Here is the input.
Amino acid sequence: MINKILGEINEYEREDIEVVPGYTFNQKETLEKVYLYYNSKYKSGEYDDENFKKYFYNIVRNPCNVATKAIDFDTKDIRIQTAGGGDPLKTWFFERDLKFWMKDINFGKDLNRIFYELPIFGSVVLKIINGEIYFVDLRNFVVEQSADTLKKANYVIEIHNYTVDEFRKLGKKGSWNNINETIEEFRKTDKPHIRVYERYGEYQEDKEWVYGRTLGVSFESEEEDIDSINFILNQTKTELPYREFHWEKIPGRWLGVGRVEIIFDPQVRMNELANLKVKSSYWAALRVFQTKDEGVSRNLLTETKNGEVLTVESEVTPILTEERNLHAYNQEEGRWMTNRDEMTLSFDVLRGERLPAGTPLGSAQMAAGMAGAYFDIIREDVAGIIKELLFKDIIPSFKKKNSSEHIVRIAGEDLDKINELIINQKSRNSLLSYISRKKKIPTKVEYEIMKSIAGETVKQGKEKLITIPKGFYKNLKYKIDIIITGEQEDSRVKAANLQMALQLYSSNPQILEDPIGKKIFYKMLEKGGISPIDFEGESSIKSINEVVAKRGGGGVARPTYSPTPVREGAETTV
Here is the structure.
């Protein structure tokens, strides 16, 4: 099996694939070129054959930065919505709890790294182990080059370099075989690390072919009759633990096309032009003269005094060494820079630069809108994979680690909402107690006094600790929807949604009393980016009187209120 792995690695590194006739591709060479160009380095070194320094005029970084900015979104753009039959209040707590947890695991930092690396390399691969995210170094990642996706590849190999101590600890933790034998043979070599090959693909087990992971090591042997030492550390049937992101995908090759690769040619030509101008500047700095008189000093600078008059048989004239082709250079540079901007959609309006004088505002807005529409497509693709990552990996890990009773810290704007819920609960309890004792409905003034008393005890401190009971999110799995728009919140749109909600409530105040109307109203608010919990509140005295009037009879019936998870106590509990 080790020989098969080494053969696949050799195929990956040395063989090109033909995407179409005339277009061959090698993933390893492409990635190496991307690393060099992005970091302003030449593969052939910093000096040319004439010992002139080769300057690198980098034009690839800026398009990558523009693309990163254009597709970026943050954890605040990840919203949890209530699915059909779900509890909006549970969803509200779940979203706050989840975002605090994502902050603890630095999920926002992981998102930023995805957006940073994706335009550069064209592809980003994440490895998920027990709900934790690890970035895969593409330099140590071997995949069948012609595969469309990782799941469709015949082999996926990740190369790890471990110290002896790391290898021993990981081996014991993973119950690997041949740990001591591997270390003993490795110590005979002069290698700095133990190289472990982690391969995902089919292997034979009990005369059957199964899909899973194979861990193996291989290094040269010191014995003359043995070429290499090979050990299989572990073989396990398992699924592929990787999540892949691509910028632009071309059928016939696995690696996506990043911003650096797409402008390889403009970068090469800009470097040539820059270095030609540098060399010509050396000549332009020279002062050389010519004459037919053999008696003139060889070096006028050192052999001629200031003010001396030369008597010569033929005039001394300077040789023209200045660069006369700068206009052509500048014109060609402009064409290549325009070509770069067109291929990467990194126009000046997206780079935040000042537009040329006289540019109409409408033209600038149209250019920004067209370029933005392209980046929106990329952002939607990335957001779809992030959504899958959240559904399959992040949220299950979160629910597993937070299934027991735990505490959520509520602060800021959320604190006002939770305080309002607690005040409403206490006011409701006081109202019911008053009706039970007095056998009548309190006046509006009396009710406001109840709320004021409740508010004085609740609105204290800058944060509140809410206890989430064990199993609170147990049935929430199929009652959530994750919306990742990737767009910045538009204050004008949100204001319009609030205005529409206000008009609807003003025209029909009873909409919150009708179960069906309330459900539709809350769904509409969520779709508009507004939390329905903001509208949870105490029913008005007028509504209570209407309920009592409808019921009639000799006594006062207990009014029906929507339940709330907040109860009184030393520590607030959901």
Observations:
- The longest strand covers residues 208-220.
- Confidence is low (pLDDT under 50) at residues 537-574.
- The two ends are 55 Å apart (CA to CA).
- Residues 75 and 107 are 8 Å apart (CA to CA).
